[in-house]
Amino acid sequence: MLCCKCLTWTRVPGFFEQQPETFSLPAPIPQWPQGTGFGTGVIRLGELEVCQITRFEFIWGSNLPQGGKQGVSFYKPIGLPEGFFNLGYYAQPNVKPLRGFVLAVREVAKPKPGNPHPHTSKYSPALRNPLDYTLVWSSNDESEDDFAASSYFWSPQPPEGYKALGFVVTNKPAKPELDEVKCVRNDLIDQCETYRMILKTTSKFSQVPLMVWSTRPCHRGMQGKGVPVGTFFCTDYLTLREELDIVCLKNFDPNLHAMPNLDQIHALIRHYGPTVFFHPDEIYLPSSVSWFFENGALLYKAGDVNGKTIDADGSNLPAGGTNDREYWIDLPRDDRLGTIKHGNIRSAKLYVHVKPASGGTFTDIAMWVFCPFNGPATLKIGVMNLSLCKIGQHVGDWEHFTLRLSNFNGELQSIYFSQHSGGEWVDIYDLEFIEGNKAVVYSSKHGHASYPHPGVYIQGSSMLGIGIRNDAARSHYYVDSSTQYEIVAAEYLGHGVVREPGWLQYMREWGPTIVYDSRTELNKAANRLPLTLRFSALNIFSKLPVELSGEEGPSGPKEKNNWIGDERW
Q1: What is the pLDDT of residues 121-150, one digit of tens each?
Q2: How does 258-292 read in b/e, with b if 16+ C-beta sit within 10 Å?
């Protein structure tokens, strides 16, 4: 029934042998249900419309002779639809398949009366050509080798009241044409920041290093309006200390017309919903929230000894406000305790929160999984594994992963894997797929953190092999989120379109606060080690994650920072 589909990358015809390969999803993207702007290929941001450009012409590569895939390549966007203009060029490391995008833009409406404009004329166009180009950096190696050809990095000089959103790269010393890229009026942009460094290099001609970064909007998350353009930012070392003026586009469409409607959300989940595998030795499995309540979970209030039963939908839980530490949920203290701790995977479902990302040009589908109990941790020290009796245990474990989808075409871009207090974004070419375009998510043994591949992940010092083990593997315990799900929130759709369950409004703790006597337990673990390792182990324990000393009762999905904000990048 469940089988893994192998993925292949294909080379771009005509590119140098060292250039990266392209990547396609295992299965075609279906025709989405009808809507407004989702999946139409063009998104309106107000006065501007944008589309994604994914076809590129190779211009120059850095370090290509030293192993090919260790290099970085720079590309010119090509194949723009009629009426659209470039904003800048594209760059990426060659270790990744060529699968990025940049936005092309066109003007579709004059500004409304009363809008601030940088000029005194009645109408200032949204887009203008740069006045000139400034050379930022050049390799100028003067080599006959195609891979070491000279490169020139140009910064467009915008007219007053406009900003450039990208750079131009050439392999000849002549300045680019003025209409090569467009600059955007100041009132249509938002602030950006550097994100990941793509390249730091020097040349024989100039010993001043060039530094290249990807960028991201400063204001991210559900309420962020910044729209990433996909271009890169570069500067030389001499100007790095200056305040960096990096900008992106801004979405002025209050209706976010490119976001999926309810029918489209269901279609996206059915098409992309991952299968969540639990470890074969997992004994603390997930359940539905209603099963948890119906099978004995109790609500406690500070000062009261006896707990209160909870309705199946959580309608009698205290709602709203913030976590005032006055209420918490705990397990029953009778013969139901063992049953409820081990969950009920047949009832389990993924609880789905759908929200805008990147100014409404992408959709985040956050999928929350609930486990009644989080099991004890296992400490790894080199080749030794020490099972801890209580450390890591707590009631009411909420974990999640998030699918990020392009609103231009509905294509899956990446998945965020939440892992305890952190997590990671993983691009689709690094995922395992199963049954078409459905990825695999591995839930770690006892802790339920999410990982893209099976294996042993160390929370601590992975280089030294010291920390808390997170074991991930396939088994016959799994939940198919493409069918076993419930949409619990999609605020952008408007009031009443999605009914939020009562328990989602419960902002207090889903388990009691636990204080571990971790020092005593760790000392006991150290005493089980050979004398040659015992002293070193005690030193190592001081470097372990802080949560080993105790656990506050975990909060529910709506209390997490990523409910409104972006995932940790």
Answers
A1: 457 999 999 999 999 998 875 443 434 468
A2: bbbbeebbebbbebbbbbbbbbeebebbbbbbbbb
Phi and psi at 427, nearest 5°, equal: -65, 155
Choosing from 250, 284, 305, the residue where a domain stops is 250
Query: pLDDT tens, 16-32?
Result: 434 567 788 999 999 99
Residue 291: the pLDDT is 98
Q: How far apart are CA 290 and CA 295, in angstroms?
A: 8
Residues 55 and 202 grouped into a single domain: yes
Please indicate whether residue 467 or residue 304 has the higher confidence score (pLDDT). 304
User: Would you state the pLDDT for residue 121?
Assistant: 47
Total domains, the chain? 2
> Dihedral through CA 245, CA 249, CA 254, CA 506, nearest 10?
-60
How far is 221 from 224, CA to CA, in rounded Å?
5
Q: Are residues 267 and 416 in the same domain?
A: yes
Mean of the per-residue pLDDT values for the chain?
86
* Banded model confidence at residue 377, pLDDT cuts 50, 70, 90: confident
What are the CA-CA distances from residue 554 to residues 276, 295, 328, 330, 397 (Å)? Answer: 21, 20, 9, 11, 7
End-to-end CA distance of the chain: 35
Q: Residue 154 and residue 139: Cα distance in Å, rounded?
A: 12
What's residue 120's pLDDT? 41
**Cα(396)–Cα(553) distance, integer angstroms:** 8
Q: What is the pLDDT of residue 533?
A: 63
Ranges of H-type helices in 295-438: 337-341
In angstroms, rounded to a whole number, what is the distance separating the alpha carbons of residues 484 and 487? 10
Taking a C-beta distance cutoff of 8 angstroms, is the pair 380, 445 a contact?
no
What is the Cα–Cα distance from 40 to 34, expressed in whole angstroms?
Answer: 10
Q: Smallest Cα–Cα separation from 110: which of 93, 95, 130, 127?
A: 127
Residues 244 and 270 placed together within one structural domain of the fold: no
Query: Higher pLDDT residue, 201 or 120?
Result: 201
Q: How far is it, in rounded angstroms, from Cα 401 to Cα 472?
A: 15
Task: Residue 389: give the domain boundaries.
Answer: 262-562
Alpha-carbon distance of 512 to 270, in angstroms, equals 36
Question: Based on the domain organization, do 427 and 368 belong to the same domain?
Answer: yes
Whether residue 99 lies inside any domain: the answer is yes
Q: Are strands 422-427 and 412-419 parallel, antiparallel or unpaired?
A: antiparallel
- Among 542, 540, 553, which residue's Cα sits nearest to residue 513? 553
pLDDT of amino acid 383: 74
Does residue 11 register a pLDDT over 60? Answer: no
- Percent of the chain that is helix, strand, coil (3-state, to 5): 15, 35, 50
Least confident piece of the model among 126-130, 150-154, 456-460:
456-460
Per DSSP, what are the bridge partners of residue 355?
A: 364
* SS3 readout for 198-220: EEEECCCCCCCCEEEEEEEECCC
Distance CA 378, CA 371 (A): 19
Over residues 467-485, the pLDDT tens digits come to 788 999 999 999 999 999 9
Asked if the structure places residue 443 within a domain, the reply is yes
Give the pairing type, strands 275-278 and 478-480.
Answer: antiparallel
* Residue 569 resides in a domain: no
- Same structural domain, 384 and 508: yes
